[in-house]
Amino acid sequence: MTQQRPAFPLKLDSVSGNKPKAKPMAEARPAIKAMPASTRGQGHSLDKSQGQGIGMDSVAVRARMVQKLAQGGIQDAAVLQAMGTVERHRFVETALVNQAYEDTSLPIGLGQTISKPNVVARMIELLRHGATGKLGRVLEVGTGCGYQAAVLSHIAIEVYSIERLKGLHEKARENLRAFRLHNVHLLFGDGMEGFAKGAPYAAIIAAAGGNNIPQPWLDQLAVGGRLVAPMVTPAGHQALVVVDKTAQGFQHQVLEAVHFVPLKSGIS
Ligand code: SAH
Hints:
This protein is α/β, with parallel strands linked by helices. It has 6 helices and 11 strands. The chain has a 7-stranded mixed β-sheet with strand order 5-4-3-6-8-9-10. A two-stranded antiparallel ribbon has the order 1-2. The chain has a two-stranded parallel ribbon with strand order 7-11. S-adenosyl-L-homocysteine binds next to strand 2, helix 4 and strand 4.
């Protein structure tokens, strides 16, 4: 099969607003079930939530966050469900727990940040673009504290998440341990190379932005798959870029401005 390669860096004057014709690689799976009432109390006994002003009911706080996400335009029920399930306060420093459900990015150490909930939700909604079931294998570049990987674990069958900073890779491992998410695979390495062993991916999502889309990401994306990443535009600001890999070639769209940490090569 021949595939037309796009010219990268993407040409921003050739933005196509066309709706992609190809569906993402989705597997026929039932939609995510509502969280059973029996598990709803789990957030209450968390160390980080105790005495930190988050109140005794992080479920209610998350429900408010989800309501705001929906008001802000997030429509995908599976995304809202996943955002309502993952306890974001478990991923931030104790001193920041009060802000865990506000629509703000927060420091996670080593100069990096966890994205705002509405950016996480927006990117995952774009990634799913209307899929009826779960996505297959998803690659996340930039594990950070592991929050987004946890959200992705609810909308994908397998999540491969790669981080270049050892300290954060280990922090994410620690943060995620209690969640026992058996479909999340944390990798330490340079995500600019992707992770060939897990390819092809139904979806690739990056949490750090460079000047172009690394070729390995395009190579490792399945036909019918979609990539969502921040990218620095020639004007010098970052925007969200969506790339669809179709049997006919790549289609790209450049969307709204965003502010992500830089994509860097190598490990540290
Ligand atoms: N998704 C994360 C956000 C982390 S911020 C979360 O939910 O917390 C982005 C992360 O990308 C940072 O931790 C940074 O170290 C990482 N990063 C930057 N360049 C990278 C690369 N080439 N490979 C892997 N991770 C990278």
